[in-house]
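Quick one: co-fold with phosphoenolpyruvate.
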Amino acid sequence: MGEDGRVSLWRAPRAVSPVDASVTLPGSKSITNRALILAALADGPSTITGALRSRDTDLMVGALRGLGATITDRHGGTTLDVTPGPLHASAVDCGLAGTVMRFVPPVAALADGDVRFDGDEQARSRPMGTVLAALRALGAEIVGDRLPFTVHGRGSVRGGTVTIDASGSSQFVSGLLLSAAAFDEGVTVHHDGKAVPSMPHIDMTVEMLRGAGVTVDTSEPNTWRVHPGPIRARNVTVEPDLSNATPFLAAAAVTGGIVSVPLWPHATTQAGDAIRHILERMGADVQLSDVCLTVRGPETLVGIDIDLHDVGELTPTVAAVAAVASTPSELRGIAHLRGHETDRLAALATEIGRLGGTVRETEDGLRIEPAPLHGGVWHSYADHRMATAGAIIGLVVDDVEVDDIGTTAKTLPGFESLWDSMLTGVRS
Ligand SMILES: O=C(O)C1=C[C@@H](OP(=O)(O)O)[C@@H](O)[C@H](O)C1
Ligand SMILES: C=C(OP(=O)(O)O)C(=O)O
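Sure, here it is.
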């Protein structure tokens, strides 16, 4: 925001030559926020190393501190020491963070006292009703169906079995599972509806619960059963955020350059790992070594026909690459993106269209045709991944200006300087 109250424009740097850089990314938002919830409910103190510090993770730290956990930091903030405490009345600011608004209410239901939730104006339209109705069915008392709402915590929650339609967000399932072991009877979640999106994120939840000694039964399809019992305190090291790596790897793809990301895990539940195969299918050469992932962009980038249902978080990056590809792309299976930070399908169609692109919003995705793009203002809609999508296009299109580049602080503070360093070939 400028001094006059208007959102300032960031001139997206144009790549004057193919990029050639190594970019080290901070920790994963999704892993950090899960680790924080589990540590706050654990049976002793834990340490989280390599944590992401960003708006979304700071909101999670603030929420859990307010509820009673003691959280201190070291090493510039990226090592977090978490000591659980009795959970009590509080007020939670969710900002625009899906992980805070969906993961913290079950923790609040365990508190002794009222916990009021609110967030950004834009967060008030993000879907919440499914999680709150499920919590009520499990014995919690809640007033409201979307932000703002109040959880009347009574110190314990009965738990049991609940059937929900999680086709709107995997976070509905993850949120219930993360606290479930602390409910008297544990929780069994059945999903009934169209396919659940972002399944790798539910796998991440299950894997992290099991890592903390919680018994989770996933033997029946669309059913997750968490047994009641202690959540073991443990020290966790957070992987780099692979979704946040995708704009940098896309930079190699669109400029015909080369970008390496150190510490890319060989086995991971992060959705961002899918970028390897996506960029390969679009013509890039992708190599995963013991030390890093390296993407070399092709001479001619081709479009892609792909179902992104499992990895919807990558859509803004993939759409930006597709917008400058030589052949059409069809991105499918992502109707649920209409409930993300903003309606991402409408936002991408509008903004690529504004720069001269040909994009059609379909029932469950986007169809993007090759077209010569020109400069203009790219609107971010307070969405970090919209802002980085504008930056990708701006590498190869003159005079693209991104409004509110600062919104990238939701998950990647300092994005602009990391982007500049990539362009100047600094190896971070
Ligand atoms: O659990 C998580 O950490 C996330 C789950 C996904 O949400 P949806 O299932 O709503 O897409 C993903 O898009 C989001 O960025 C993070
Ligand atoms: C959908 C996203 O975030 P949130 O955790 O707020 O849902 C995202 O980061 O792409």
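If it helps, The longest strand covers residues 112-118.
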